[in-house]
């Protein structure tokens, strides 16, 4: 691992270790409309062995555990995984917790029937390596479900939203585009099955405070949004009253692929 990637991952561990409980209670993470679709998209049943990468608060595991044979909740950050275990500890005997780097998974080839990763890859420094690792641990015919914030194809909009995320959360690396993801899927022998694109609206005061560490940082994020052009403000549906931002909307992508 190069020094830049190592530094990014240390920053992620620091950020998520510090704010672990916030990700369990976050409405965005806990109540997303995508959670009810997971079982049917993946065809998970009592024989399925499932891997959830960068589990965060464990919301994907909570949705799938009642239907799966075994499910492995993994995360790079010990404190985050420990918090997820506290959230999920309801006597389920089929959930296993493993500290794991998404770009270097501690599992053998052809192990899992399904792999999931939700609202996390924008923190990964090497998404192409991550996708290859997913393909490696999937069984032939196994499915991978990716859910994450994505960048628009337009360069100006892409620059704006990634700058926004970086100002709000220093552990953010990049929201990638659909085109980039599809290229990495193809390189890793993963066939595209289907996808849904949705607009995700955030309650701005809650969203900005989840990751910022000072009022000064919040003001910098505010300024970035309020100084945006009308085209950008319209695209991201930036709603404000008397320069107090109420909400912002970004793009999210839910994509299902299958190993050749």
UniProtKB/TrEMBL annotation:
Keywords: Methyltransferase, Transferase
Methyltransferase type domain boundaries: 51-145
GO biological processes: methylation
Alphabetized CDD domains for the sequence: AdoMet_MTases (cd02440)
MF (Gene Ontology): S-adenosylmethionine-dependent methyltransferase activity
PANTHER family linked to this entry: METHYLTRANSF_11 DOMAIN-CONTAINING PROTEIN, METHYLTRANSFERASE TYPE 11 DOMAIN-CONTAINING PROTEIN
Similarity-based family: Belongs to the methyltransferase superfamily.
Name this polypeptide is given: Methyltransferase domain-containing protein
Organism this protein belongs to: Metabacillus sediminilitoris
